[in-house]
């Protein structure tokens, strides 16, 4: 099957290219608007000229593709909230030190951090200026107070601060992640410093959140354990904020995390249930359109209640198209259906393109429809239960063809026992979802029998136990796998070549596959060459000191963390994985380091720096030494002063002022990030 012969797929690819161009290249909104309008006019004129010629023209196709790319750029620019004329960044002077009167509305609750409850908010006013735009709100945790509700409007007096850049190499870029959701700043405050207003602007998201709160309040009257209730919220309400870290890690390590994210699997099962339950409507006059309308309304109601995440929106969009096609008995091509849903979603939400769940969902579905029929034909049986489990096994294995490269790139681990958890859960997922919907409906109506609630709770607990057992088989869990973007692209070339060879087993297909394997090998060789360098790094680690010497793919880590803290520390782990480190060892912190031809002197809490044998180029201050920095500078005359995260803030502030006065470079890791000497 020549997929690129489908016009919809070509246009969708062009739209994707346009969005990528708009994201990575700054193109003014007016320029992209005028360019798109001009190309649409040119396309229309070309159509009028060619429609009576009865012949194909390469120019018409070329102009169509260029126009779609331009529309992709325009779509990105139109949705970028910074381009809105009254966005707060355009009409308000952002000064991090100045408190402002900020009126805001709660848009969404996020998973709490270690010290803060987090919310996405809509800023309505800054001082007396009416504005719009989203921000991240961080409120100090207080177990005695309730969390804020969606759609409630509050006032606070706080500074608007920039998002924090990652402070260490290969650290997850939370700032970049938020900016892809059009969130550019954050606010820190506490519950006592926010004031609820009487005004309220209700939205559909507020009603959905209120419904979820009502459902949870009803369910809490039964004997559901906290982990069971958290899984019910994830499976049926699309909310994963309350899942404990242990349970979440179990599902991740068992390769079953997709079960907790409301996606195509869940929506497909719900569509099948609705199709059966609403079948009696077909007996009515105009029953078929009524049935389709009911299915669409129920699917989108479910999507709204689940929070309209990228995965659920994608799934409901795709299955809405499938539902229409099935009920009208129209033949559909799954690739075209996927292309239509991608095209529509990206026109409405272009930044979905960068959402990990969105990418994994589509890649999994494409891989399933492409490879599952091939794998299924490898073995057959007339025993129906065996055939059913064989189908599920081939589906789960096929999905891995699509998601392994991207999954390794983002998460750097591969649970090889994924098929066990999937075989144990997916056959019964329809029953779990159907029973869960029944439990929720009966609970809301105050008619839920105790035995049914207990049975459903036991079912969820059994699922958690199975996943926990699989996740504990650590021998089969491969962690910390280095995988770059180049590895991802070359891996997908191999996957495509396997599919092509299966379709056409000829010399050209075999040659193509061998070339893709050589490309992958070339990427491995280039990666080894690229990572063959030397680095000396002073990482930022709050209250501790963390130093690394890297030589090619080996490194030594000097630190003062205890063994448990070091084992769980992500700073070194992220660096190791991101730089393809093959071996490392640890050592205690030293007073002197030699980096190439330069010397680094470490001054710790003892404050000893009397060196006469050599002249240090860098001085690292750690553990808050009580020294006169002016005297140290006059005595040693270093090139740079470095202060890591183990120092008191008051000391750092004083040292910074001294260096500024002496016009000496001062590197504060809590502000500028890790200090790196190449």
TrEMBL record:
Keywords in alphabetical order: Cell membrane, Membrane, Transmembrane, Transmembrane helix
Domain DUF4131: 29-192
Membrane-traversing stretches: 7-25, 31-50, 57-78, 256-278, 290-312, 332-348, 360-376, 388-411, 423-445, 451-471, 483-501, 507-526
InterPro entries, alphabetized: ComEC_N, Competence_DNA_uptake, DUF4131
Keyword Cell membrane listed: yes
Membrane topology (UniProt): Multi-pass membrane protein
Pfam families associated with the record: Competence, DUF4131
Localisation per UniProt entry: Cell membrane
Residue intervals of the ComEC/Rec2-related protein domain: 235-503
PANTHER family, alphabetized: DNA INTERNALIZATION/COMPETENCE PROTEIN COMEC/REC2, RECOMBINATION PROTEIN 2
Protein name (database record): Competence protein ComEC
